Amino acid sequence: xxxxxxxxxxxxxxxxxxxxxxxxxxxxxxxxxxxxxxxxxxxxxxxxxxxxxxxxxxxxxxxxxxxxxxxxxxxxxxxxxxxxxxxxxxxxxxxxxxxxxxxxxxxxxxxxxxxxxxxxxxxxxxxxxxxxxxxxxxxxxxxxxxxxxxxxxxxxxxxxxxxxxxxxxxxxxxxxxxxxxxxxxxxxxxxxxxxxxxxxxxxxxxxxxxxxxxxxxxxxxxxxxxxxxxxxxxxxxxxxxxx
Amino acid sequence: xxxxxxxxxxxxxxxxxxxxxxxxxxxxxxxxxxxxxxxxxxxxxxxxxxxxxxxxxxxxxxxxxxxxxxxxxxxxxxxxxxxxxxxxxxxxxxxxxxxxxxxxxxxxxxxxxxxxxxxxxxxxxxxxxxxxxxxxxxxxxxxxxxxxxxxxxxxxxxxxxxxxxxxxxxxxxxxxxxxxxxxxxxxxxxxxxxxxxxxxxxxxxxxxxxxxxxxxxxxxxxxxxxxxxxxxxxxxxxxxxxxxxxxxxxxxxxxxxxxxxxxxxxxxxxxxxxxxxxxxxxxxxxxxxxxxxxxxxxxxxxxxxxxxxxxxxxxxxxxxxxxxxxxxxxxxxxxxxxxxxxxxxxxxxxxxxxxxxxxxxxxxxxxxxxxxxxxxxxxxxxxxxxxxxxxxxxxxxxxxxxxxxxxxxxxxxxxxxxxxxxxxxxxxxxxxxxxxxxxxxxxxxxxxxxxxxxxxxxxxxxxxxxxxxxxxxxxxxxxxxxxxxxxxxxxxxxxxxxxxxxxxxxx
Lengths: 243, 507
Hints:
The complex is a heterodimer of chains A (243) and B (507).
Chain A: H1 2-19, H2 26-29, E1 31-32, H3 37-40, E2 48-49, E3 52-58, H4 65-73, E4 81-85, E5 105-108, H5 113-124, E6 129-135, H6 141-154, E7 157-163, E8 175-181, E9 194-204, E10 212-218, E11 225-227
Parallel strand pairs in A: 3-7, 3-8, 4-5, 4-6, 6-7
Antiparallel strand pairs in A: 1-2, 8-9, 9-10, 10-11
Helix pairs in contact in A: 5-6
Chain B: H1 2-10, E1 19-23, E2 31-35, H2 37-41, H3 50-63, E3 74-77, H4 80-91, E4 101-103, E5 112-114, H5 125-139, E6 147-148, H6 152-161, E7 169-170, H7 176-180, H8 192-200, H9 217-221, H10 223-233, E8 249-259, H11 262-282, E9 285-295, E10 301-312, H12 315-328, E11 335-347, H13 361-378, E12 383-388, E13 398-402, H14 403-406, E14 424-431, E15 433-437, E16 443-448, E17 451-465, E18 475-483, E19 488-494, E20 499-505
Parallel strand pairs in B: 1-3, 6-7
Antiparallel strand pairs in B: 1-2, 4-5, 8-11, 9-10, 9-11, 12-13, 14-20, 15-16, 16-17, 17-18, 18-19, 19-20
Helix pairs in contact in B: 1-4, 6-10, 11-12, 12-13
């Protein structure tokens, strides 16, 4: 009987502990997995916090930044809605089907910057929206702050694609990355189509962090993301995306 | 026969061949249900086993010369549900003549009923009306036997046994008994068993019923004979269920003084929404589309359509959408009249709360609310769902639908994935200048968007071509190229003109 009583007491204590009010924000507790493990190691803490903004900076056109950002932030097991803000109207769905569930993706085409910011804020603030992806050039500080608050309210992940020239601008994003495409060395041959990037964590809002990682993507046939090892480039370990 | 007319109108290729419809109601194998004239002339009758009918028609074909034999008989399962649905849709042609139209009360209805009491003077009296009805059906591709009378029974009998195509009949009240007397007993819409009994007694025509005492008819032949006879002759009333659409749900306001600001207009709409949504809620219906009509002095008017992804009965949500639309709509400066009308409704969705897991019902509602807000502020064509279609030409492989419309339709498209294509495709391919190309045709450098790009790696060519009989034939060799900075582009060469274009960038 004493054994049973002890078990019951322990269970009661655990239940009381769980029911104790917590003053931590929900967004501090819940984190989303990154697209692949090695990239996640670049972050101060594993996974993306819910309810935050992430900036991805790049220079020029054809850098592959949208692909990398989608791969790093997608949540394939999640039923939440994805809002893709496509101002120029040039999003090409057939290229995205391996990264997105088009049935759970809303493509929005605002015609001016006022509508773009309004769409961003409304989407970020809505519970049930998992990720919002948008290319934004100029971002007034006040608007940026409103977006951060909207993301915290809705618990969604805001992925902002921005030009590298905004590097020195104030930011309310949780993380800011710089993505630089890298030409694949001649010695490694043409092979199947693929891409390589250097990804640098420029800033993490709450902590002093930095770091760089080189990643490579095989577009065909596998769609695998892998880390490029500088020492043993011939035997780079392949990791399936979503780890 | 309506089932054959319906089938042939939907499948014109069957118009020139004999058709046999079969069904398997009793579970004893398929049997003939209906057939066109030629199989009937060859001995096919309703109730005959299908295999027997097939053998009969095949034997019949072998016996005749090839020149005289019709095309092979087409056998088709009888789709009674499709027949009824199509007839209901066709019934709406009666709206031009009357608000009261419906189907005959029968297990397999083939007859439409239009109550044109009080409206015949609009179409040239009775004969003009029946001629107009027949002409309307003919325009839709259907042959109709049309008749008019003061009773449903008499009109039914006349349409089936007196009227011919282009010879619509009108039976006035005083002529009904005389006109019906020579018609067969089946013109009274009697059960088959009653008709059989009457035939055994030698009663073939309606006029022969006069020899029986009226009081004895129910006891000898069942209640239906006297009932149908009295209905046809106008001694007993007969009603039919109208298919007329329900009264639209709407609410109106007409002010003595105009409102001239958006806030006041929104307030008026809020007041009108209360009774409108109340009527829908009473029927467990939610709003899918709301029409807002406003008029001002001098005839100025405007009309808006507000749509919702999911049927809603939320006053605050609908009012918020109206407020968003009013911000951008061109409305009269002063408004004297407002009408709200529910143009599309559907059953409110009922979601079961998940007691032990996370309650996602609230999230669903918020997502629907977001799509509504985006669509109503930016326009339905700015909030889209993408679908991939299996086409050869890249610019034809993606189809977009407004989310508001897409949510109402069943999606049947297939997914087509192509990881090697770029995430960004230009709306129109742009001319580029290629300076040099390699031995396999890949460009070695090109100029685009004020920049010179030196190609250090390329993949391709991927040839994309359409058939020669396409309206706009396409013959292109695509190359994926990487420049000196690691950026990648999608270029193609038109093989007919050897001109180069950029079609997309790998973002």
